[in-house]
């Protein structure tokens, strides 16, 4: 069900099975992570990020750096991209995968980079090592009001319309989590 969080900003959450997508085996997908953590550039300094990340199909410029696409894309990521193209938007054409240990996180940000197609939905699949655990996904409005969503194993979150212009989002740091997390996110690149 689509929920409007601002006049032209919306989100939608549902299970991957609704799109006919078969979830991959967690450990096999975890083993696809890069050997080194990602890097970002903040205020002119390069920093390690608190997670592993890899772009597929398209280079992705964010946080002051170009994140090079892998030369080959694992089938499971391509399968998710194809399902999203069929059911969400045919313009979706790039993938970013993040692998999180239980203590890892991503701070508040918007996916509003210049190399993304404006107003196209962004689709994220959450995979959790422990399918009974939920992970907090936080949206922050321009008035700094937080909205928490609890995402479980196999949940899909779509952010559409002006959401990237009107809200920031994060996966907050917490010592409560026990489960590793993988997010597979597809976007539309120019």
Please specify the SSE layout and strand pairing.
Elements (H helix, E strand, L loop, with lengths): L1 E5 L2 E7 L10 H5 L8 E4 L2 E4 L3 E5 L3 E3 L2 E3 L7 H13 L6 E7 L5 E4 L12 E7 L5 E7 L5 E7 L2 E7 L1 H4 L1 E4 L9 E7 L3
Antiparallel strand pairs: 1-2, 2-13, 3-4, 5-8, 6-7, 8-15, 9-14, 10-13, 10-15, 11-12, 11-14
Short note summarizing the structure:
The protein has one domain: Sandwich (Jelly Rolls). The protein contains three helices and 15 strands.
Features:
190 residues; mainly beta; 7-stranded antiparallel sheet; 4-stranded antiparallel sheet; 12% helix
> What proportion strand?
35-45%
Order of secondary-structure elements: EEHEEEEEHEEEEEEHEE
What's the CATH class label?
Mainly Beta
Strand arrangement in the largest pleated sheet: 1-2-13-10-15-8-5
Oligomer class = single chain
Form type: globular
Largest sheet: 7 strands, antiparallel
Number of strands: 15
- Which residues form runs of ≥5 with pLDDT under 50? none
Give the rounded overall mean pLDDT. 93
| Named CATH topology | Jelly Rolls
Intertermini distance: 28 Å
Describe this protein's structure.
It is a single chain. It contains 3 helices and 15 strands. The protein has a single domain (2-36, 74-187), classed as Alpha-ketoglutarate-dependent dioxygenase AlkB-like (Jelly Rolls). Strand 1 (2-6) and strand 2 form a beta hairpin. The model has no long low-confidence stretch (mean pLDDT 93). The strands form 4 sheets. Strands 1-2-13-10-15-8-5 form a 7-stranded antiparallel sheet. Strands 9-14-11-12 form a 4-stranded antiparallel sheet. The chain is mostly beta strands and 190 residues long. It is globular.
